[in-house]
Design goal:
362 residues, alpha/beta, 3-stranded antiparallel beta sheet, 22% strand, metal-binding
């Protein structure tokens, strides 16, 4: 009896051209991990490794080679079910330079331990008794295309709308916010924007002051990551709350996390397990944020329903959640069929709906 892990590359096809600050996406590659016991091959734990192009620490040309090496090394250890610990194995096996692999193996292990039932956290959410509030994401595009998305999201029941900005003329982006505020008060519709680091430092404060009149909940990453002094100054002077996103990537040590948050003192941080090294690392970010009175929320990073399920279950263990960024399950033509569904601005899990994973079998 010993544990074995393998992987399968899977290309996800978008249902539309997804505009981002790093270009337009039509496809995304993910790598599904399969963890099995040699004596019980019908029990399979699944995890997803999906580095984001141009953003992930492990977006490297030889990613698949590194993943293959980790799988071979894991299998060489010849681990028995009774003598392994998730945290210990991850620390010993995988470099912190590969956060998406950390996330994939960690969640595959938790799934395997649940009996291969896709159970990462046993909460009210997975029993269908709790919904997670989520924001409706408006992708970058032309003014007309973004306005159409806004109308669709509000009609679908979302009460928190998030706009990606920085791709079109700033005046036109403000016009979109004006369009929403002309119809809905902050009590009716909460607005978030994500600049993905698009603002120049010399213009950032002026743009934040202009955005503040729309009574936004927050702005994500107004300037590019890595400018800690400038970001700290901006967080002290800002007229609206700032959320760190890309800024967190690469800070894998606990002390390093603490120093970053203590220095910048943002109003919020955004946690993407695929980019940050999995659920254990998110635990550390949350503990530090709570200690420093910094708000936070959790966001998926274009994972399939395999990764999204793990992230949603992780989020569901926390009480009094503000809207999370977990609405990416409808992005793909060929997503993995799952019990996850979106209903009136919330993410739900229907225990009566089965998973269909035949396409992931070797």
């Amino acid at each position: 009896m010993s544990l074995r892990v393998s992987y399968l590359k899977y290309t996800l096809n978008f249902t539309f051209e997804a505009g981002t600050s790093r270009g337009t996406l039509t496809q995304k590659d993910s790598y599904f991990l399969r963890l099995v016991d040699s004596d019980q091959p019908d029990v399979v734990g699944y995890g997803e490794c999906g580095p984001l192009r141009g953003l992930s620490l492990d977006d490297i040309p030889d990613f698949e080679d590194r993943l293959s090496e980790y799988c071979q090394y894991f299998n060489h250890l010849d681990l028995q079910l009774f003598d392994w610990n998730v945290t210990v194995i991850l620390n010993q096996l995988i470099s912190q330079q590969h956060p998406s692999i950390l996330f994939g193996l960690e969640t595959a292990m938790h799934d395997f331990l649940s009996g291969g039932n896709r159970l990462i956290r046993d909460t009210e959410f997975v029993h269908g008794r709790r919904a997670i509030p989520i924001n409706g994401l408006v992708w970058m595009g032309s003014h007309e295309a973004m306005r159409e998305q806004i109308d669709q999201k509000i009609a679908a029941g979302y009460t928190t709308i998030k706009l990606k900005i920085g791709a079109i003329d700033f005046d036109k982006e403000c016009a979109l916010l004006d369009y929403i505020r002309g119809q809905y008060s902050p009590e009716q519709i909460t607005l978030r924007v994500d600049a993905n680091g698009a603002f120049r430092p010399d213009e950032a404060l002026a743009k934040l002051e202009r955005l503040a009149k729309y009574q936004l909940h927050s702005i994500e990453q107004p300037i590019a990551a890595g400018q800690h002094e400038l970001m700290a100054d901006l967080c002290r002077q800002t007229p609206l709350p700032i959320a760190l996103d890309e800024e967190l990537i690469g800070h894998m040590e606990y002390v390093d996390k603490f120093r970053l948050l203590k220095k910048i003192q943002p109003q919020y941080i955004i946690l993407k397990p695929t980019l940050l090294g999995g659920l254990r690392h998110c635990d550390e970010w949350i503990e530090l944020a709570n200690r420093l009175s910094i708000g936070w929320w959790i966001t998926s990073a274009l994972e399939s329903n395999i990764g999204l399920n793990a992230i949603a279950q992780y989020a569901s263990q926390f009480k009094n959640l503000i809207p999370q960024g977990l609405g990416t399950g409808q992005l793909y033509h060929n997503n993995i069929s799952s019990p996850l569904r979106i209903d009136a601005g919330t993410l739900r899990y229907d225990p009566a709906t089965p998973w269909h994973l035949n396409g992931l079998r070797p």
